[in-house]
Amino acid sequence: MKNVSRRGFLGVGAASAAAFAGMGLAGCAPKQAERVPSTDGGAWSWETAPEAIADIASVEEADVVVIGAGMAGMSAACSAAEKGAKVVLLEKTGAAQFRGIDYGAIGGSLQLEAGIDLRDRKEDVLQEVLRWGDHRGDYRVVKAWVDNSAEALDWAGGVLASHGVEIALMPIEMQVIPDAWYEHFATDAFQIVPTEELIAEGSEAGYEPPFAIGWAKAFTAYASELGVDARFNCEVKQLVKSEEGAVTGVVYSGETGFIQVNAESVVLATGGYGADEEMLDAFVPHHAEDIHNITTPAHNTGDGIRMGAWAGGAIDPAPHCPMYFDEGVEGLEHMPSIPLTRQPWLYLNDMGERFCNEDMPYAYVCRAHNAQPRHMKWVVWDSKWEVEGPAMGMVVCKDFRSPLHDPEQIQQFIDEGKILSANTIDELLAKMDGLNVERAKETIAHYNELCEAGDDTDFGKRKQCLNTISELPFYGVHAGTTLLVTMGGLQINDSQQVIDGSGMPIEGLWAAGNCSGSFFFGDYPITISGASHGRACTGGRRAGQFAADRAMGV
Ligand SMILES: Cc1cc2nc3c(=O)[nH]c(=O)nc-3n(C[C@H](O)[C@H](O)[C@H](O)COP(=O)(O)OP(=O)(O)OC[C@H]3O[C@@H](n4cnc5c(N)ncnc54)[C@H](O)[C@@H]3O)c2cc1C
């Protein structure tokens, strides 16, 4: 952990708002802006705005500036342009960024065609989001997603389909475990059909999973057709404010130096901060001990959250919601999301004991193993996995039917010893450094008895998940938590406007996706398929529309 002051990061918006009331950032000082070190004066860097960048090479005009070309930003830029706004989209990497496999909505057209109709369960979904977040989310903000997600995801699916990217509904049996003790909501609006062409292109370009490149291709093309002025390798450094406190533009770093783009409306869509240690320290308690590896993209450094706070926006109070996956396998710097090691097999802590019902939503599995010694667990299974794994009926990214299941990769990991294997239990356990082997053997023997009886009287695991450890070869991994993304950010109202510490909107400033807050807290509700993408797409689309309306005087 870094040696930084923990002084009051609650209500940072108010502090920065006071510091910047009435100041136009671009004109207040002749010094080049620098990120204020967190150790400077004991403040977090987002509490103290840097001095405005003065050496502006050129000034341009637009109606709407969107910062970030991920799911939220692309949705915002295209939606604003559809309304006729002149849009500049600024992205700091070289391409649009997309990931993942599911995209959440309620009442989408493909869902309805397939007979999946959750429209009369909107309140249940909404309450499920709030419950996962200890009711710290804003009902009105979550409701805005629930009510608008079908339109937004149908629109996005239409953009994909009309640009040659095939989509299909994820079957309900890949979204819902009927007899699980926790309810799943079949909210996936569609998935991309992973063609060989997309996989080849996406692998080359580094998308994860590779076929997520379909979004980048379709939306980059659509933005271009709409006349969106998309500029890549352009990192936005600061927002510009009027004397009245409205956001009136941005300053970005381009090939020719610092360029200011003035606009009536600015949409922040810069994603989360999983690659920013200072923000993790402030907002994700125990992250250093709990997180085994990070698949957060390197570009998620919290830029928009910082810039929004400097402009007076309030940040969700800590702790924030991390998206935790139970896929951090020791020995693999980065674990592709293969379902095999994430099944509810037998889990042991270092003492050689079971410690939870292994069949929990994976965010809860992470919380349970994070509470164990070394914040990790041993996962143990045997050669029956090809039959027993699918029979457990896990869904979405744990589903063996998903494109994430890759038998060749599994074999490669076994051959490389990344997945431990042995022909006797003794031999397997001997490979598990730090495990109490004698106690583990007793636990396995007892667990096998429970499995044979078909009744987990110890932890209440579903009968289908009770599989003996009995047939060689035996397998195991040491697994911990992976951080995918962070999901807390700038507080917003139900029109996606960034609000200050007293709940007042900052004129001209919207936020969407993972740089926005007021939605997810606690843990990511994986019982609601694609909730994170659903929020990003729906929020981005609405932010873009509101931003265009303001710019065009509607
Ligand atoms: C491996 C992986 C798999 C996932 N799978 C799923 C899934 O199946 N379902 C699901 O719902 N969610 C999934 N997620 C989470 C989901 O991808 C994110 O929640 C979502 O992408 C957030 O979108 P966003 O637009 O807010 O942010 P991002 O996608 O992070 O986009 C932000 C963009 O802003 C740019 N940017 C940042 N700072 C600046 C700056 N200063 N100037 C200009 N540009 C900037 C970034 O480069 C980036 O392109 C997954 C995440 C990961 C890591």
Automatic annotation (TrEMBL):
One of its GO terms (molecular function) is steroid dehydrogenase activity, acting on the CH-CH group of donors. InterPro entries: FAD-dep_OxRdtase_2_FAD-bd, FAD-oxidoreductase_2, FAD/NAD-bd_sf, Succ_DH/fumarate_Rdtase_cat_sf, TAT_signal. This is FAD-dependent oxidoreductase 2 FAD-binding domain-containing protein. Pfam families: FAD_binding_2. It comes from Slackia piriformis YIT 12062. The keyword Oxidoreductase applies. Keywords: FAD, Flavoprotein, Oxidoreductase, Signal. Its cofactor is FAD. Residues 63-519 form the FAD-dependent oxidoreductase 2 FAD-binding domain. Residues 1-21 form the signal peptide. GO terms for biological process: steroid metabolic process.
